[in-house]
Amino acid sequence: MKQYRVTIGIPVYNVEKYIRMALESALAQTFEDIEFLILDDCGVDGSIDIVREYQQHHQRGCDIRIVNQPANGGIGRARNRIIDEAQGKYLYFMDADDTITPDAIELLYENALKYNAQIVYGSYELVKEFEEQVEHISYQYPFLVFQKEDEFADYVFRKYNGIQSTTWNFLVDIDVFKKNTLYYQPVNYWEDLSFTLDLPTYITRAVLLSDITYSYHCRYGSLSNFDKRDSIDKEEILKTIGAVNQNKGNTERLRQKEYFPNRMYKLMMTDFYMVCSIFSKKKIIKPAFSDREICAIMASPLSLYEILHFRQARLSNLMLYILGVLPPFFSVFLMERIGKAK
After folding, report:
1. Among the listed residues 248, 226, 224, the one whose alpha carbon sits nearest the alpha carbon of residue 236
2. Which of 75, 145, 257, 286 is deepest in the core (most CB within 10 A)?
3. How far apart are the C-alpha atoms of 190 and 196, rounded to whole Å?
4. In sequence order, what are the residues at sequence separation of 6 or more whose Cβ sits closer than 8 angstroms to the Cβ of residue 275?
5. DSSP string for 116-163
6. Among 54, 73, 75, 53, which residue's Cα sits nearest to residue 9?
7. Contact 109, 5 (CB under 8 A)
8. How many CA atoms lie within 13 A of 208 on its CB side?
9. Cβ of 175: how many Cβ atoms within 10 Å?
């Protein structure tokens, strides 16, 4: 099988309306040595038929490879299959309803080589498309190069939004995944956030670019974060909570790191925002969450003694710890008030 310098991995599931746009932008790359790895997650529309059309007729069609899942497994399993199947030295994820600039891979790859980077992030724009209105919002990083151990993780966890919590628009050395057995949780929502809480802890050499290389299209009807739903099965949310809890368990190897308190704060704030999402959608979540179940989401894997000895983010972690140990009714009362204030 041919070896490539870069694999663009695209999970595909019921995106017939958008897959042409995504493929056109991927196939228009100025960088030549790319494998276009399409993961068929067993949708029921004509998405994969469109991919096969490009595979047969596009000038880069010979570099398009379709991998079929045995059954629909969700986005987490789809990304894991792409990691296992990728033939490129570097891997770049994009979603099947988004677009990338023609020079996206060339820019990221050149900087990966220049700085011997394990990972290179491009900046991106959010394209909001609701009815007839389209709004473009740019999110640009400062140009930064990280070369020292823990320097990148310290930057990421220094504040809650230190870096994007998505897994598209970065070029990463595939060995980061394979040598560390680093995979996504098998859930359909927030799998990116769970993953990106761990990824920086394995990275030493990283680059952030101010160049916008990705357009993230947010449309009415998107299922991101359980939005725009008529009903939500409680089990979906429990699986997502379980994915974040995996991060809570993955703390022992990081306890001596200087960034550990900030990472714990970001992790616990992830739980808090999940609780806020439950509050905002409680009318459509079936069956309902009890106060005790909501309070349990905020359970910290740390002891009070550990938190009191933090040098960083002590007060922030302490406040979140308290929410997990208060009587459930009082804890939920406080979280609802704090959530509304935010």
Report:
1. 226
2. 75
3. 10
4. 294, 297, 298, 335, 339
5. T-SEEEEEEEEEEEETTEEEEEEE-PPPEEE-STTHHHHHHHSSTTSS
6. 75
7. yes
8. 19
9. 11
Prediction pTM value: 0.91
Q: What is the pLDDT of residues 7-64, one digit of tens each?
A: 999 999 999 999 999 999 999 999 999 999 999 999 999 999 999 999 999 999 999 9
Q: Pull the structure tokens for residue 175.
A: 């060995």
The amino acid present at 207, given as its one-letter code, is V
Locate 45 and state its tokens.
């529309």
Q: Determine the residue type at 98.
A: D
Distances, alpha carbon 132 to alpha carbons 15, 22, 221, in Å? 20, 21, 14
325, 301 contact by CB (below 8 A): no
- Which residues does 197 contact at the CB level (< 8 Å), separation at least 6? 247, 263, 266, 267, 270
Q: What's phi and psi for 23, nearest 5 deg?
A: -65, -45
Q: Which two three-digit tokens encode residue 244?
A: 């974040």
Task: Show the tokens assigned to 146.
Answer: 């990280």
Closest CA relative to residue 203, chosen from 170, 247, 172, 163: 172
